[in-house]
Design a protein that fits this description.
By secondary structure, the protein is of the alpha+beta class. Helix content is about 20%, strand content about 35%.
C-alpha cells in the first residue's frame, strides 16, 4: 500500500510540477482567473467588513460580482449573495443588521440574520448607490432622468417614448453630449430621496445639472448630515460643463426643501464629509479652475461660525480621500512616490502626521477606535483586505482570496531607481526582471509609458497594463515616472502641462539611457516601448525623432491634436494643457502635434496601434490616422481595432487577444 502511494505521488509530481514546489511564469489564464476586490464597507460596530469580489469568466466572456462578509473577530470570509446577476456597492444600515446594494438596476437589501435578498426600489429610471439616513428611515439614490420632466408620470412617458421609437437619431443642443464611452441621450444624473422601504419621495437635485457630477467627483458626493436634517451634494452649474471643472457643494434642507450653494471656489470641490457631531464639514478642493490635476486640499467648513479654512496648507501631495476618526481628527490618503500613504491631521492646529507609508492602499476606513481597514495591492498581488492597529503600529493581511493561484507563479518584485532628468530634477522609476532571471544573461526589454499624463507607475497589480504579464515571456520591464507624474509634489505634476513633448520626453530618453548603463543584463539592441492614452501620445511623439526602440505599441494614443480637440468630450483638459482652444492665439496644439509633417516624415519604426470604437476620450479616428500615416509610407504596422471596447480593453476574450497580439508583436522584433 505504501509503495503504491509513493508511486501515485511521483506520478502527480510529473503531471503537475507545481506540486513539487516548482513555479511558472504567469499566463493569461492565470491572470484572468484572479478575483478582483473592491467596494469595501465596515459595519457600524466595526466588527464586520462587506466587500465585493468580481470573478472573470473567460469562456463566457463575462464578469460576476458578489458580496462577501469578513468577520474581524472570527477571521472568516463568507459569501452572502449568490444570484445569477451581479450584486455591488454594499451599504450598511445604521443598526448593522441589513446591507443595501445594487442589483439589476435597482436597490436591493439582504438581512444578515438570514433569508433571501429582497428588491427595495422599483423606480422607472432605475436606482443605484444608496446612502442611508442616520436614523435608518430614509435613503438617497441616484438615477439618470430627463431633466425637463418634473413629475414621475412625465418621466415614465418619456422613457417609454424613447424606448419604443423607431427613430434613433439624436438632436443635440449643447456639450456634453457624450462622455467616456456612452452617449448621454439628454439625461442627467439626479439624487432622489426615498423611504427606507423604497417609496420615492422627491427629486432633491432637479434641473439641467448632474448630481453626482459627470466627472471629477469624489467617493461621497451626496451625504446626510449626522442629525439627518440636511443633505450635502456636489454638482457643476456652469453653462458649458465640458469646459469647466467647477464642481461645487450645495446643502439641501429636508424640512424646507431649500437648496443653498456652499462653495464659490471656481476650481473643483467635492467629497463632502460631516464630522460625527455635525459641527464641521470637510471636503476636497482644487484651487485652479480648469485644471483637473491640481493639488487636492482638505478644506474645513465650520457650520457654526460659517467659516472655511484649509487643513493641508503647505502639504506637498494631493489628497485622494478623507474620513473622520473623531470630532478632532481627520485621516486622509495621498499618492506618494509610487504608493498611497495614510496621514492624519488634527483640525485645531492643522498638524499633519504620517500613519502608514510605502504601501498601495485604498478604501481606508475606521473599524472601532484604533483599527484601520483597507485594501492593499502590490506588483505581485491583487487587492486583498488588510488591517492596521494604530496603537501597536502593526499591519496584517486578512484575506488571501487569490493565494491558490499566486502560489504557483514566479512573480518578480519591482526594484526602484532614481536618475537626474529634465530641469536637473530627480526622477523615479521601476524595473522588473523577468521570471527565472539568470545572472550573466542578457535580456530584451520593454519600456512602459504611463497615461494621464498626470498619472504614475505604482506598486500595483494592474488588470490591464500588468508588469508581470509584460515580463512573463522573458522581458525586462522598466517604467519611468517622468515630469507630470503624480505623487512627487505639485510642481513636478504641473511640469507636463503646456510641455507635452518637452521635459517628459527628455526624462524618458535620459532615463532609458541611464537604465541601459546601469543594468547590463538589458540588451540595448532589443528594446521596445508601449504606452496608452498620453503614453500612446508619447509613443507617437517618440516615433518622429531619434530613439533607441526597435518597435512600438501605441494604445488609444493622441496623434493629431486639433481633430482630437474637436472630437473629445472633456474640453477643459486640452484647453488647460495646450493654453486655450486651437484657434486661440498662443495655443500649443501644433507645437506638440505628433501628426506634424516634419515628425511624420521621420517615422520608420514598426508600430502596433490599438483602439476601441467606443473610446470617446481619445476617439478611434486618432488610431486610424496614425495607421494611415505609417501604411502610406510603407512602414511595418498593424491595427488592432475593437468595435466593442472603449479607452480600456476589459472583456475577457478581447483582453486575451490584446495580450496575444502585443506579445507576438514584441517577439517579432525583440526575440
Amino acid at each position: 500500500m505504501q509503495k503504491a502511494l509513493y508511486l501515485l505521488i511521483a506520478l502527480l509530481l510529473l503531471v503537475s510540477p507545481s506540486l513539487a514546489g516548482e513555479k511558472r511564469a504567469i499566463t493569461f489564464e492565470d491572470f484572468f482567473t484572479l478575483k478582483r476586490m473592491h467596494s469595501v464597507a465596515v459595519s457600524p460596530d466595526g466588527q464586520q467588513v462587506a466587500l465585493c469580489l468580481t470573478t472573470p469568466n473567460i469562456e463566457e466572456n463575462s464578469f460576476k460580482t458578489d458580496i462577501f462578509l469578513y468577520d474581524l473577530k472570527a477571521g472568516e470570509l463568507r459569501q452572502i449573495t449568490r444570484a445569477a446577476s451581479s450584486s455591488s456597492h454594499p451599504v450598511w444600515a445604521p443598526d448593522g443588521k441589513t446591507l443595501y446594494f445594487n442589483r439589476s438596476g435597482q436597490i436591493w437589501k439582504i438581512s444578515l440574520q438570514g433569508g433571501e435578498a429582497q428588491q427595495v426600489t422599483d423606480f422607472v429610471a432605475g436606482a443605484a448607490n444608496a446612502v442611508i439616513s442616520p436614523d435608518g428611515k430614509k435613503m438617497m439614490f441616484s438615477a439618470e432622468v430627463y431633466p425637463e420632466c418634473e413629475t414621475f408620470e412625465c418621466l415614465k412617458q418619456k422613457i417609454d417614448s424613447v424606448k419604443n421609437s423607431k427613430v434613433k437619431a439624436r438632436v443635440i443642443d449643447q456639450l456634453f453630449y457624450r462622455h467616456w464611452n456612452r452617449w448621454l441621450e439628454g439625461k442627467r444624473s439626479h439624487v432622489f430621496l426615498a423611504t427606507i422601504e423604497g417609496e420615492v419621495l422627491k427629486d432633491i437635485t432637479p434641473g439641467d445639472y448632474d448630481t453626482p457630477p459627470l466627472d471629477l467627483g469624489g467617493q461621497h458626493d451626496y451625504v446626510f448630515s449626522p442629525d439627518g436634517k440636511e443633505i450635502c451634494f456636489v454638482r457643476n452649474t456652469d453653462s458649458i460643463v465640458a469646459a469647466s471643472t467647477n464642481n461645487d457643494l450645495f446643502v439641501y434642507d429636508i424640512a424646507s426643501g431649500e437648496t443653498v450653494r456652499l462653495t464659490k471656489n471656481k476650481g473643483n470641490d467635492n467629497n463632502p464629509t460631516y464630522s460625527p457631531d455635525g459641527r464641521y464639514l470637510a471636503y476636497l478642493s482644487m484651487e485652479r479652475p480648469g485644471f483637473e490635476a491640481d493639488r487636492r486640499r482638505i478644506m474645513l467648513f465650520d457650520r457654526k461660525k460659517r467659516t472655511t479654512r484649509e487643513l493641508t496648507a503647505g502639504f506637498p501631495y494631493s489628497v485622494s480621500s478623507i474620513f473622520w476618526r473623531n470630532n478632532k481628527e481627520l485621516f486622509f490618503t495621498c499618492g506618494e512616490h509610487g504608493a498611497y500613504s495614510i496621514y492624519r491631521v488634527d483640525i485645531k492646529k492643522g498638524r499633519i502626521r504620517p500613519v502608514l507609508k510605502g504601501h498601495t492602499v485604498s478604501d481606508v476606513q475606521l473599524a472601532g477606535k484604533n483599527t484601520l481597514i483597507f485594501r492593499e495591492q502590490n506588483e505581485a498581488m491583487p487587492y486583498e483586505l488588510f488591517k492596521f492597529d494604530l496603537k501597536k503600529k502593526k499591519r496584517q493581511q486578512l484575506t488571501f482570496v487569490n493565494k491558490a493561484v499566486l502560489d504557483q507563479l514566479e512573480l518578480p518584485r519591482l526594484e526602484e531607481f532614481v536618475f537626474v532628468g529634465a530641469k536637473g530634477d530627480s526622477v523615479h522609476g521601476y524595473i522588473l526582471r523577468p521570471p527565472f532571471f539568470e545572472e550573466g544573461k542578457t535580456y530584451p526589454a520593454i519600456e512602459l509609458i504611463h497615461g494621464g499624463p498626470q498619472g504614475a507607475w505604482e506598486r500595483e497589480f494592474h488588470f490591464r497594463w500588468n508588469y508581470q504579464m509584460f515580463a512573463a515571456p522573458g522581458y525586462v520591464v522598466f517604467a519611468i515616472n517622468f515630469h507630470g507624474s503624480s505623487g512627487y509634489g505639485q510642481e513636478f505634476t504641473d511640469a507636463v502641462s503646456k510641455d507635452w513633448g518637452g521635459a517628459p520626453y527628455e526624462d524618458i530618453l535620459t532615463g532609458t539611457e541611464w537604465v541601459f548603463e546601469n543594468y547590463p543584463f538589458i540588451d540595448r539592441n532589443r528594446v521596445g516601448a508601449a504606452g496608452a492614452s498620453y503614453g500612446g501620445f508619447m509613443i507617437n511623439w517618440i516615433a518622429g525623432d531619434k530613439h533607441p526602440f526597435k518597435c512600438f505599441v501605441s494604445h488609444d494614443g493622441v496623434f493629431e491634436q486639433v481633430s482630437m480637440y474637436g472630437a473629445t468630450e472633456e474640453l477643459w483638459f486640452p484647453e488647460w494643457e495646450f493654453n486655450g482652444t486651437p484657434w486661440d492665439e498662443g495655443s500649443l496644439y501644433q507645437k506638440w502635434n505628433p501628426a506634424s509633417p516634419e515628425r511624420v516624415r521621420r517615422f520608420q519604426t514598426p508600430m502596433l496601434i490599438v483602439h476601441g470604437e467606443h473610446d470617446y476620450r481619445v476617439p478611434y479616428t486618432q488610431g486610424l490616422q496614425i495607421f494611415t500615416a505609417l501604411q502610406r509610407q510603407g512602414i511595418e504596422s498593424r491595427l488592432l481595432f475593437f468595435p466593442d471596447e472603449d479607452h480600456f480593453v476589459t472583456r475577457p476574450q478581447n483582453a486575451r487577444l490584446w495580450w496575444q497580439t502585443v506579445h507576438n508583436w514584441f517577439a517579432r522584433f525583440l526575440k
